[in-house]
Design goal:
- Helix content is about 50%, strand content about 5%.
- The chain has about 700 residues and is mostly helical.
- The strands form six sheets. Strands 5-6-9 form a three-stranded antiparallel beta sheet, with no helix packed on it. Strands 1-2 form a two-stranded antiparallel sheet. A two-stranded antiparallel ribbon has the order 3-4.
- The relative contact order is 0.16.
């Protein structure tokens, strides 16, 4: 070897003392998880000098893939599936945003998809790339996978059997539309079964209001799917309007009425609903809703809707306890169907999960009917038609509660309901307008709009190509206001809005076809008029025969579902963020505590009130803490601050828009931009108005595409 040759370098010694040798991992786990690719076929490669070469050290993970321990999941990073890398598109780069389309005729790439909050994600296909497996740390930290749960609740359209514009045929559309309405029937009919008896209505009044609700729900659904948001959302009486309606019904001026209390109170409700609905229509069609959307995010929607369900805790089980053998059977049957039997499929349909409420109602009603016919609730010398205050016998006083709440009296309802009756406007008389009740309903209409915004966003991610534009949202809110005006004119007792349960129903039934919902709405209108020889008055009569205990038991389940659906909106935000946890926690706590202060103020523990205990939270206007010389202002403030949803909304909207937080942490709703949506054929077909009406109103930019 010549002198010019460089001296061989010795390998640098390792650490001392030497580290213990680790057991080699099998190639299937070690190589794939570390990304190490050997040059030869062995786990270790021998060099020419006989020295073992170790794999290069792993580079530190990029900043975007570090686990966010506060949020409880890995931060956004590219996802890979079968060699397709899907990096998250930056929010400011509009040119690289690709929209997933359902059909090739819509144009665009099929490999693009929507993000979890409606953001478009670009797809870059790398040839000869291996599927990327998540690192070991990611498997431990990622507690919020993007896979759908066992109930199909997934914010991706690929899991929906029929999407927004799909038309599979008349028979499938009819079956799925009927299934859709039947699964959500409880939300449509239960509110009249609560407010009509509270107004002193008879069985005939209850049957007539139920028939009217079915008719108005079908008409308003057709209007919303045709000229509103155009999403497959059923319209109906919302639980958002139930608490203010009960507060108006139990107003002090209605306590000493003699005669027909029902019609008098219904006319007061009609006037308040019409004024509040007109305000909502103005909010939508003037474009103010587009500006208001900047304040509405998942952290605001979640506690607001959850507070709607939690606010009726004083009504639910206290009324169920008046006839526990019937109410407990109703609650347990619905729980068994919806939870324990939810995975059982019949002809590919999860009938027990989809029809949990109708099945539980049918079984419990049949049980109560058989017990009533068997004479279990018949007591000698006692009559249920005699008021409790006029009963002299101690024996009858002891059993009057069971006779009133457990019996199924079908004779009254069926004999009272006519065979043919057409619901018509102003059927209860001319509405009466009072400014104090109208102001309460105007505030409630804002809460209803917040509820609908959450439903629009969640349902669009399930069935549409992209979320709607702010103009489409404003258009939908405006039409909901007009629909509520129709509900006020016809006299349903509440406003009409997009039912929150729509999102759960779409996810479970996997049916998002607009045509199916429209056909179901037509069937609902026909049902409210005549079905063969059986008039809907008789259908309403059967529904009116449902005991109040069964209604309360069903509402326990429905309100619990509503609270859970409200909290589910947090999946669009960083649910583990301490900021969001504190905001949601404060909103929910104060939504229960502040109304309790107003409801309990000025009531002596031994006071004997004229209303049942489960209606006492709604008589706050007569004893609230606000006692100025202006009686109308006292009524408005005492009533509004006794509503749980109003407090939850105020606390959440103030904190979420003042406490600093990133857009990802807050989960800001991402709506489609108007110019981008007009260039995308799929988005235009999803949301444009039919019959080329949109071309006439193209200049109205704030209520359309």
């Amino acid at each position: 070897m010549s002198k010019s040759d460089p001296k061989p370098t010795r390998p640098r010694p390792g650490p001392w003392p030497p580290l213990p040798e680790e057991a080699p991992m099998p190639p299937s786990s070690w190589a794939k998880k570390t990304g190490f690719r050997p040059k030869f076929s062995g786990e270790t490669n021998a060099s020419d000098s006989g020295q073992i070469s170790l794999p290069p050290p792993r580079p530190p993970p990029p900043r975007g893939s570090e686990p966010d321990l506060e949020a409880g999941r890995v931060r956004s990073q590219p996802a890979a599936t079968n060699g397709v890398t899907v990096p998250a598109a930056p929010s400011g780069d509009k040119e690289q945003t690709v929209v997933k389309r359902r059909k090739e005729s819509d144009g665009g790439s099929k490999n693009a998809g929507n993000g979890p909050n409606g953001q478009a994600v670009a797809v870059a296909v790398e040839p000869n790339s291996q599927p990327r497996r998540p690192a070991r740390s990611e498997e431990v930290v990622d507690v919020l996978p993007n896979n759908g749960d066992d109930d199909g609740f997934m914010s991706r359209p690929s899991h929906i059997k029929y999407e927004l514009r799909d038309t599979p045929g008349l028979v499938p559309i009819g079956l799925y539309g009927f299934q859709h309405y039947l699964s959500i029937l409880g939300s449509i009919i239960l509110i009249p079964l609560v407010i009509v008896p509270a107004m002193g209505g008879t069985y005939e009044d209850t049957a007539n209001v139920v028939s009217t609700v079915l008719f108005v729900s079908g008409v308003t659904t057709l209007l919303q799917t045709s000229f509103g948001s155009r999403l497959p959302l059923i319209q109906g009486p919302s639980f958002v309007y139930l608490a203010p309606a009960l507060a108006i019904i139990n107003s002090p001026e209605f306590q000493g009425l003699n005669g027909n209390n029902f019609k008098h109170i219904m006319k007061e409700l009609q006037g308040a609903v019409i004024i509040g609905s007109a305000f909502q229509a103005l909010l939508g069609y003037t474009g103010l809703m587009s500006l208001f959307l900047r304040l509405i995010n998942p952290v605001v929607v979640s506690p607001t809707i959850a507070a709607v369900g939690l606010s009726f805790y004083s009504y639910g089980f206290p009324l169920v306890g008046t006839c526990l053998e019937i109410g407990a059977v109703q609650i347990l049957s619905v729980i068994i169907f919806s939870l324990y039997l939810r995975k059982i499929s019949v002809f590919g349909h999860r009938v027990f999960l989809i029809y949990a409420v109708p099945l539980g109602l049918a079984i419990t009603w049949a049980t109560a009917f058989l017990l009533t016919e068997a004479g279990v609730y018949n007591y000698k010398g006692c009559d249920t038609n005699v008021p409790a205050s006029n009963i002299i016998s101690d024996h009858c006083r002891k059993h009057v509660s069971r006779m009133k709440h457990c019996r199924v009296d079908t004779s009254h309802a069926l004999n009272a309901s006519p065979w043919f009756r057409f619901p018509y406007p102003l059927q209860w008389g001319t509405p009466v307008f009072h400014w104090k009740m109208a102001i309460v309903m105007c505030v409630v209409s804002i809460i209803s709009s917040v509820d609908s915004v959450g439903s629009y966003h969640a349902s669009s991610l399930l069935v549409a190509s992209r979320p709607p534009t702010p103009g489409v949202v404003s258009r939908g809110i405006g039409l909901e206001g007009l629909s509520s005006v129709l509900a006020g004119l016809w006299g349903t007792g509440t406003g009409s809005t997009s039912l929150t349960e729509n999102v759960h129903t779409i996810a479970v039934t996997k049916m998002g076809s607009r045509r199916a919902v429209e056909l179901g709405a037509c069937v609902l209108i026909v049902l409210s008029l005549v079905v063969n020889t059986l008039h809907a008055g008789k259908v309403g009569g059967f529904l009116a025969s449902i005991p109040q205990v069964m209604v309360a038991a069903l509402l326990c389940f429905m309100w619990a579902m509503l609270a859970a659906l409200g909290l589910s909106n947090l999946r669009y935000s960083e649910a583990g963020s301490s900021r969001n946890i504190i905001i949601v926690g404060l909103s929910l706590f104060f939504s229960l505590s502040i109304p309790a202060y107003f409801q309990q103020y000025g009531i002596a523990p031994s006071s004997n009130l004229s209303v049942p205990s489960y209606f006492q939270p709604y008589i706050v206007a007569s004893h609230g803490p606000v006692r100025s010389k202006y009686g109308g202002m006292n009524y408005v403030l005492n009533t509004l601050f006794s509503l749980h949803m109003v407090i939850a909304f105020l606390v959440a909207v103030i904190l979420d828009n003042t406490v600093p937080g990133s857009r990802q942490e807050r989960g800001v709703y991402v709506w489609s931009e108007r110019e981008v949506a007009k260039r995308e054929p799929a988005v235009a077909k999803d949301y444009e108005l039919p019959f080329r009406i949109g071309r006439v109103f193209r200049w109205v930019k704030w209520v359309g595409l």
